[in-house]
Amino acid sequence: MPFKPKPLLVVYDPLRGHCLRVVPRMRQMLEDRGFNVTVATTEEAPADLEEFFGVVVGTPTTLRGEGPSDAIEAWIQRAQALDEKKVAVFSTFWALPGRALDRMRARLTEAGAEVVVEHAYWLARPAEGEHVLPAECMVRIR
What's the pLDDT at 65? Predict the structure, then answer.
């Protein structure tokens, strides 16, 4: 039986371009691990998640470590079929990672999603630990 890549949605808030600093490399690493990746901002992301095997959700945090962003909160509210998905979450931060990942995990869990991995990217060194989320997705979402 031939190998078939699993469809994965990466949705992120484009606010201030912070998530975009890690998403292109993340996409490549996920594709290298056997996913067919669709990347979308919160404005573009589909609400119907039926076609995706899993979802990666990313939010920028404020300088004080606050998050998730309003755009991510709104997307979580309109997303359908989250209760059937395994989800990875990430945040980007300059000063403090804060509790954005904890809060995002709680919101997604309330929506029925199973959060399987989370990672915070420090924007001063975004490549540091960049393999963590894609590697965990390969094991926990596939």
Answer: 83
Domain that holds residue 109: 6-140
Strand ranges (E), the chain: 6-12, 35-41, 54-60, 86-93, 114-122
Q: At what angle do helices 23-32 and 132-140 cross, to 10 degrees?
A: 40
**CA separation for the pair 79, 111 (Å, rounded):** 9
Query: CA 95 to CA 123: how far, in whole Å?
Result: 9
**Left (φ > 0), alpha (ψ -120 to 50) or beta: where does 117 sit?**
beta
CATH of residue 121: 3.40.50.360
**Structural domain count, the chain:** 1
pTM, whole model, 2 decimals? 0.96
